[in-house]
Structure formats: C-alpha cells, structure tokens
Fold:
Amino acid sequence: MPSKSSARLAALTVAAVCSAASTILFTAPAHADSVRIHDIQGTTRISPYAGQKVTDVAGIVTGVRGYGSSKGFWMQDPNPDADPATSEGVFVFTSSAPKVAVGDSVTVTGTVSEFVPGGASSGNQSITELTKPTVTVLSSGNAVPAPVVVDAKSVPAAYTPAGDPAAGGSVNGLPLRPAQYALDHYESLEGMNVQITDARVVTATDPYSELWVTVKPHENASRRGGTVYGSYDSQNTGRLQVQSLGSTADFPVANVGDTLAGATTGPLDYNQYGGYTLVAGQLGALRSAGLERETTAGQSPGELAVATYNVENLDPSDSTFAAHADAIVHNLRSPDIVSLEEIQDDNGATDDGTVDATRTMTELIDAIVAAGGPRYEWRSINPVNDQDGGEPGGNIRQAFLFNPARVSFTDRPGGDSTTAVGVTRVRGKAALTVSPGRIDPTSDAWKSSRKPLAGEFVFRGRTVIVIANHFASKGGDQGLTSQYQPPARSSEIQRHLQAAEVNSFVKDILKVQKNADVIALGDMNDFEFSGTAQILEGDGELWSAIKSLPKSERYTYDYQGNQQVLDQILISPSIRRGDGFEYDSVHINSEFHDQISDHDPQVLRFRP
Structure:
C-alpha cells in the first residue's frame, strides 16, 4: 500500500468490473436448455456452465446498476436449494441501462461468463455473470428475497484455504467450504441480497464514495475504532467494502469508528479495488464516533524530536500547504528534524525537465512560519529527471526540514543525484563523505525509485546521522482476495534489495563508530513484520521503533479495512539502549475522510 497515486489509480470502482475485465474461457459441458441460478454458480468459484448459453433462467431483481461501465442488474432465485456452497444470486451484464426494476420477476437467456476485474494479470477472482442477455419481465412488485445476514457468527475465523499447487496456487477449482473459510463464505453469497447491521467503519469514506466496515467489531480492534493488520496470517475476516446503488451524493461521509446504524442491505459484488463489496440499496444511518485528530507531546529541551511525514505529491499547485503546516506545528509540535517524502518539483506533474523544488519547499516553510512554527531550513538533492518513479513529471524526492535554533546541519559538499555518499572517520567519529548525499544512487535497487537521502546533524554537541527513505510501492501485488492464495507480493523483491542497501550503509557507519546515533526513517512501503523490515534491521544494526507501541496502536495507513504500518523510524542500538525514547504514530490523516495525506506522520523523541 503505497501512497495514493500507486494505491489507487484514478478509476471508479463501480466501472472496474467490465471496463478492465478479461474473460476466462473454458471447455464447457453439454448445452443446457434451462438451469437455475444455483446450478450456474455451482460449488466452486467457476461456473460449470462458463461459456455456455442458458435459457429462461428465472429470478427476482434485487438491484439495478444503471451507471458506469458495469451496467446491469442482480437477480436472485426465491426458491433456493439446500446446498450452502451454491449462491442463489447472479449479475446480469446489460452494457446499457437495464430496463428492469427491483421486484421484477424475470427470465434471462444469455451466456454464462467469468469476468476478472482488472484483467487476468491482476490475479483477482472472477465474477460469474450472464452476458448478452435477452430479458423477459413476467411481473412487477414482487417481494425481494430476504437478505442473508452477514455477521460475526456467520463469517468463519479462517480467511482462505491454500491454493491448489497444481493450478498455480489458484483456489478457483477448490470446492467452496463456506462454514470454514471467510472468502468461501463470501463467494457462496456472490450476487445475493445480503445485510449487515450496526457495522463499524474501519476505513473512512474515500473520493469514490466507498468505505469499509467490519462485521466483527472485536477482531484486532485498534483503540480508535479500526482493525489492525498484524501479520500475513491475520487478514481480518470481518472486513467488507460498502458502496451504494443510489446517488453518491447521499453516500455517508464517515471516519473510522463511526457506525452505519441499522441495516445496510444490497447485492454482494466483487470488484477490482477490494474484492467482496456490498452494493447497498439501503444504507444504515451514519452515527458519528466523534474521532479527533491526535497531537503528540512536545520535546523537552534535552530531547531531539525526529519525524517522518509523507506529504503526498506536494507541489506549488496544491491547496494543502496551510493544512500541512498546521499539522507540523500543532499536531507534531514542531519537530527538530522532519523527513518529508513525496516533495515534488516546482511545477508538479508538468513533465518539462524541471527538477528543482525550491519553490515547493519555500512555500511549505513560509506556511509553517505563518502557522506559528519555526523558520525551518531544508536540505535535499534534486533527482535526475523522470528517474525516481512516482507521478510522471513530478520528480518526487525526500527532503529534510530542520529547526536551526535547535539543531545544526553539517554540510559537506559534493553530494548530487548520481554521487554515492560514503562513510569516513573524522576525529575518531563516523562522518559522511558528502552531506546531504544519496546512498548508491546508480544501483539497480533504486531503478525508477526514490534514492535514500543521508544527512549529518548535530544536537547539543552530538552527531546524529539521519537517512530519509521512500521505498518502492506495493503496486502490482495481488490483493488479499486474490484467486491465488497466498497472494504474490512481487513488489517486495525491489524493497528487499533497497533494505539491504540501507542496512549495509548503516553497517559501514557502525563499523567506524559502534555507538553512532543513526536513524533510518520514511515511507518504507512495508510492514513492521515484513521481510523488508527484517532485512533493514539486519543483525541488530537497526530496530523499528514502532514495535515499542502496543499492537493495537501500530499503524500509519488504512487500506481496505486494514490499519497497517508503512511508515517507520528505525534506530541504531545506541538510541534504543540509551536514556530512553518515546515513539508516537500521530493519527491525523489515515482515519479521516478529509485527509490531506493518506499517511500518518511518526515522531521519535530521544536524548542523544
């Protein structure tokens, strides 16, 4: 889960089903003249009639979607079979606005298709649909089949079975066991009318008018109302995405901890951006929990406060400078050093060769002063044009802010976009050969990715070496609801290389000075329990300080109902074993619908 630009690529979820879909082709069984919906859905994720034409399939319309690229309607058989593995609902893709209404009794003749939202390469599960339909309305005003209640009792604790090794790890061909696995349970309800009641919001409303709830309020709950993702084996089975069949203008604007009070009812869909989704024809009433943004404690005169903050593609065209400044001054209490990620060049996404970010940084510093904060100084290195990933033309990079009234920066000339910073000995202490400098910027580990920025600071006579990072995003990884279980995390290959580079650099520092104060911080784009974090920590050269917090407070980012760690501050042994430190994940963004960044900043306070 990367920053916004890579986590969600500017497409409406409701349009994803067919606009970015691929068809799975199968060798179908013999032609069937008339089948029921549960026959079509079958007992696995793939219909036994995929690719076949079926006639006069009967059902009651339970929901109509007349917008986006996935126009169509859901229908459900009011006379279910006795098999809990077979869904009684199905989506009918009409391509144009359907001419049916909820409560219509219809028959449909069409072709059974399996669509993969996002395309086959996404690894997503498929949706069983009827396509190229001929629809006959038999009667109107019929009672809609009663919704199936989805709650803490009905959803199993186990998330998913392991995929079939003979099928490349896919679960598609496995028999559904809805009483044993959560994903099987949801799949057995695909297309059916379902209902959740008094569901707590665990991801705030986003710009696409969707949110996430949990039907298991006690499952890995954070103290502020979210659901914490604590390991690869703890996917949180109660998470469910909610969208609306109606106008997005009426969609609730919710924060984490709020509740959709009463019943939320509608067909259960599956989409590219989150998997199983309740598309609500009836939405519960929003009940606010009154969540407020956090403020960290201020540092004492003898404490050094170091922060990391992803400001999400900040450039001079943005309207968020004052809000970011207010957050830095009042919520973070003006840290002595701030590592900023996603600072863009002076004309943002305009791809004209501009790489300098002086205007961007000056506007932020002026806004901080206007908010009552110190006049920070800054250091950074301009990247080579279009070589560091991120938004094309934006040339994102890390930058240091520092308060010159509290801390000084040791400038050593020679650092540029392609020169590697090294470690030397000065008066018996570790020092950087250039400051600021970039770690091995020509290494393949940093191809199309941000290069770490190292700087040397002095606080009360003590040198502190700070390394600002923004590792490769999670773009391209398979989702938790993938047909492949466990899902492939291809993006971590590059992050592992990056982590090894940073750890090796820290090793070089500690070889020169065993008790050096070293901090590696930033948007690591990976979890505190991940392989990336383990490589960064190495043999004790670094330690992720967010692990000093209770597990219920370890999160910096909220993605698809999982509160998780992406931003970290790792510390060397001298800091960890010194006079003590305090760590705070300051929740000002990730839990809120009106966030100015999708990341929460982190603050470390310690006595060098």
The radius of gyration is 26 Å. The chain is about 10% helix and 30% strand. The chain has three domains: 4-139, 148-287, 304-606. Confidence is low (pLDDT under 50) at residues 1-32.
